[in-house]
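S1.2 Input.
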Amino acid sequence: MKKIFIGGKGFDLWLLWNAVKSDTKWTDPENAICIASGPMGGTPSYPGSGKSIVTAISPITESVMDSNVGGYFGPYLKFSGFDALEIQGKTSQELVILVDGVDQKIQLMESDGLPEDAYELSALLTNHFANGKPRSISVVSAGPGAKHTLIGCLNFTWYDAKRKRTRYKQAGRGGMGTVFADKGIKAIVARWDSVNLATNNPADKEALKIVAKMHSREITELDPKQNEMAKIGTTHLVPIMNDFDLLPTHNFQYGQHPGANLIGRDVYQHLFDPGFDGCWMGCTVACAHGVRDFVPFTGPYKGQKVFVDGPEYETIAGCGSNIGIFDPFTILEMNFYCDAYGLDTISVGTGIAFVMECFELGLINQSHTGGLALHFGNRAAALELLHQMAQGEGFGKVVGQGIRKMKAIFAAEYDADPAIMQDIGMEAKGLEFAEYVSKECIILCPRLSRRPRPFIGFRCFAPGLDCAVCASCHGTILYLKTIKTPRTLPK
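S1.3 Output.
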């Protein structure tokens, strides 16, 4: 296993392969949740070494899915003696699992009366197991949304000593949180104490020092000149995507919007709480920014000051431009509640964008949505839909099933046109698209009986100029805005 499948993803896939059968469903007890970091996992000062991979059979794709996540859990699991964790089976009583590397024990504890909300649950478990050292605890949990949808995420915690609070990174994709909740797991807690370069037991400590120093220096020198991840995180991508016509807008119909400057780096750099924001010790990328004292205007935290972990680029694009919302504060609120409820912001955003286009095309109406006017840009309706998804209520219960299942439901129950929905439903194998507009040019070549030949790229060539693929012909080139069929084909 070590020689052939080295790495977090390799370990996970090896364990999952040996756990399941060819006909295993995501709800079957043998479906395994596997969590692993790589051989360098947890090495301090190594950029990105806090990362872990979570793998299971997905409720969305009904196939193998892996999701990448930061936080302290992977390293603490590894330091406690486990390169990988595999969980099988189900329980009728919710469990908290403790992997205690300090006292060298594993405990399975029945839980009763613990909070549903991920923020409250993580804070409570951190305080309970910390013994006065909250930085020694990392919690993996889902949330109520994971129970009531197929797009549940997992929150992995890290303790921010400067701000004295538990913070979050997410294994968002593919419904890993939904599998977690289906098994009856309330949380997994890892406990470890001090960390240094020797904790990971490196084979060549001196070589490790040299390479770590080299990588860290390169990021420290170049990041301020390039992406500014340590200052503004992935929000720097918003203007780049918009400039190159790649920012998903109104369910991927467009790649640009004049309001993009309202939800990008120029705004969030003033909203982010200043200070070091690395989700692992010594990581020089330090991109895990957040907003202090944000006050939601809907939901259970209405009127309360909260700390929002994020937003990242894909949350901004998914829960912002893709649903026609160019208000940074609405995006922050959707970000906060997706984390609290344990919902993937990408699937939430792309799913709501699909629903909004269906609504505007007349495929569904307010009699189907429970009165919600789901036009692009209706932030109040989007937030209400999010709260419904978390509770498994109203039209939100349908949206929480994901785009592929929504298409079947809309066709069967609302008489919506399947062909149109196939065109506008941004999913592949059941998984909602990530927030990047892919493009292609279709080349109609006379020498090939005018059968289209795809040319992947971002440049639009005018008719009559030499073809980029076949310079000897002068074919007509049609430039497609997105990978789906546009409403109007610009030439």
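S1.4 Remarks. The chain has 17 helices and 17 strands.
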